[in-house]
Amino acid sequence: MKFGPVPLDQAEGGIAAHSIRCAEGVVRKGTRLGPADIAILRAAGLSEVVVAQLDAGDRPEDEVAHSLALRVAGSNIRVEAPFTGRSNLYADADGVLEVDAPQVDEFNGRDEAITLATLPPFQPVKAGDMLATVKIIPFAVDGTVADTTLAETGALLRVHPFVRRKVAVISTLLPGLAPKVVEKTLRVTAARLAPAGALVSHDLRVPHATGPLTEAIRHVRDEGAELVLIFGASAITDRRDVIPAALVSAGGMVERLGMPVDPGNLALLGRLGSVPVIGAPGCARSPKENGFDWLLMRLIAGLDVTAADVARLGVGGLLTEIVTRPQPREEPPAEMADSLPRVAAVLLAAGRGTRMGGPNKLLEPVAGVPVVRRVADAALASHAQSLVVVTGHEHQRVEAALSGLPVSFVHNPDYPSGMASSVRRGIAALPESVDGALILLGDMPLVGTGLMDTVIDAFAPERGRLIVVPMADEQRGNPVLWSRRFFPELMALEGDIGARRLIAAHGEAVHEVSAAGPAPFLDVDTPEALAQARALAPSAASPENAAE
């Protein structure tokens, strides 16, 4: 192939190397120049043009791209028509993509003119997803190179459809494992299986002991389960632990305990005859991607996963930093080693309270004390080390209601934009020495010192308790305590949604504490709610008597 500038008189039949825009029109890159194109370029004042001119043995880019794409495409993959030297490959079925990575490397090493890019191996795909693209870099390829590559290339990609549909879930139980954890795990697992067309066929819950678990494994196998998932009440720490011991006792075998994927290290891969078994790591209770997903999707697609396959997952196996893991990794200074986490309180008192229909709800009395002062008094008597009050609407009146209290005020002029702007101002005002922030709502006068201390005392970053939330009747309330780990995400909030989505996104970091009564839920947004608070509030306004 010849390439370079040629006089317009010699350019007909050549391929335009670049797009040329002029008043008479556009000659696009890749156009095989004809008389009309030459006339446009001449009228624009050009005397020459950069073109590619094919030699006798050259093969055009689209022809080569399409031929190679058809060659590398395996089962359940379709190839679409080529354009501009590119031919794309798409999934024809839901399943898992298998890529012959060494052969793809060899393919891409044959000649710089020929390239193949794919999705990562073993990625779950849906029918219609783009899987790969063959792209020819120049406008033509030497015919000998093209023919040799075609002759020496076979199918390099294939989609394995999901085939296992009946998935048994067995949960082991210990006294400290809350039933809601098991229920949530079942919901998360069902959601994981749904895109693959698989269903939870069995939901068995047995004591965390070898005997009962052995019987449960045999039972689901005998009833036709095609895959068994075991969620232990306690993590697997040895091949002689309860879950691997029960699998062996049931007649199965352990292929591999532990995998080089994080999160997901403590996974077990085994089998009972032809039925695969996964001892799920703790992170599998979360919907976030982890090593469990890598095993689960391959097995549902009917792929055989061996111990050697698991061992090869380390490169790329660091999926994300685990939010519950203590950071920084180095040892804390000696003087801090035995200290309790330092918590500051942030009181949000900036809103307009339009639903109240007139008066500023924060300044309305409850048991003789303004609503916002009741919350501040309780916070100052709690285990929180300091209190920052974020003001906005009628900030001078709010500050006056808190006069004489040892608090720091931060004014938020953007308060009409929503609660998120106040959260950002409050977090930004905290000192670097603070380990966590207790976010208080200024319109919740029944939240007392007792409830605040329950939340603060449960905060334990070193144990993975990074977000602490009061809970009553399966409902989460306020106040919520946030580890410094989440300050950047709190600072990035927008609008009036608050931080609910962050709690949902970081379920593995959430610790719930029991709360009684309406205190965590009652905000005085309306006259009716204010009347309810007044009826329920203790007659004395002291923090010790504030509702918990």
Automatic annotation (TrEMBL):
Residues 168-301 form the MoaB/Mog domain. GO terms for molecular function: kinase activity; nucleotidyltransferase activity. It comes from the Bacteria. Signal peptide: none annotated. Gene3D superfamilies: MoaB/Mog-like domain, Molybdopterin biosynthesis moea protein, domain 2, Spore Coat Polysaccharide Biosynthesis Protein SpsA, Chain A. Transmembrane segments: none annotated. Keywords: Kinase, Magnesium, Transferase. This is 4-diphosphocytidyl-2C-methyl-D-erythritol kinase. It comes from Azorhizobium oxalatiphilum.
